[in-house]
Design goal:
The chain is built from seven helices and five strands, in the order ββαβαααααββα. It has a single domain, classed as Glutaredoxin, CATH 3.40.30.10. The chain has 188 residues and is an alpha+beta fold. Strands 1-3-2-4-5 form a five-stranded mixed beta sheet. It is 44% helix and 12% strand.
C-alpha cells in the first residue's frame, strides 16, 4: 500500500490512455468516465479493493467503465506473475473477467495446481491454458503493462486513475463513491 507522505503534489497522469483493442474493459467505453486500476492478484491491498471496485461498478453502472491492468509485484509476491499470466491466458478464451474475479476470490492459493483448477472452474480449454502458461506466452504483455504503470507513476498496488488522473485519496467505498459523484456532477 502506498504511503501518503511519499506522493508528490504534482498531478500524476496515465501515460498510456485506455486502448479498446488491448485493455481489459468492463462497461461501455461511451460512459462519461473511466477508472483504470493497476493491480496485483497476490497483493492483499488489491484483494481488499476488489469488492469495493465491484460495488462501484454496480452503483454507477453505465456511467463508468473499468479497466484492469496487470502490475505484479514480483519481488514480494512469488505467484503474482503466474496469476497475471493465467488471467491473460483466460482473456484469449474470452474469460478474463471470470478468471480475474476467481483469482481475487482465491488469492491465497495461486500456485500452478490451483491455477489449473481455476481454469477448469471458469470453463477454459485446459490444454491450451497449460500450453500458454508453460510457454509464458503473455510475459511480454504483462511486462508492457508494468512499464506503462511505472511510466505513469505507479509505486504500489492498487493504483487507480480516474479519467487519466491518478486517484490519491482513500479507496474505501464511501470516499471512492463520493469522488465519483463529484466527477459525475449532476449526471446521477
Amino acid at each position: 500500500m502506498k504511503s501518503k507522505g511519499t506522493t508528490s503534489k504534482a498531478i500524476k497522469k496515465l501515460t498510456v490512455p485506455v486502448n479498446i483493442g488491448s485493455d481489459h474493459i468492463q462497461g461501455s467505453v461511451n460512459a462519461p468516465f473511466n477508472i483504470v486500476e493497476y493491480g496485483d492478484y497476490e497483493c492483499p491491498y488489491t484483494g481488499m479493493a476488489h469488492p469495493i471496485v465491484k460495488e462501484i461498478i454496480r452503483q454507477f453502472g453505465d456511467k463508468l467503465y473499468f479497466v484492469f491492468r496487470n502490475f505484479p509485484l514480483n519481488d514480494i509476491h512469488p505467484y503474482a506473475q503466474n496469476a497475471a499470466e493465467a488471467a491473460e491466458a483466460a482473456a484469449v478464451q474470452d474469460k478474463f473477467w471470470e478468471m480475474h474475479d476467481y483469482l481475487f476470490e482465491h488469492q491465497k492459493a495461486l500456485d500452478h495446481s490451483h491455477l489449473l483448477e481455476y481454469a477448469k472452474k471458469v470453463g477454459l480449454d485446459i490444454d491450451r491454458f497449460k500450453k500458454d502458461l508453460a510457454g509464458h506466452v503473455y510475459t511480454s504483455l504483462i511486462d508492457e503493462s508494468l512499464k506503462t504503470g511505472i511510466n505513469s507513476g505507479v509505486e504500489g498496488t492498487p493504483t487507480f486513475y480516474i479519467n487519466g488522473v491518478r486517484y490519491e485519496d482513500s479507496w474505501d467505498l464511501q470516499t471512492f463513491s463520493k469522488t465519483i459523484k463529484r466527477y459525475l456532477g449532476g449526471q446521477i
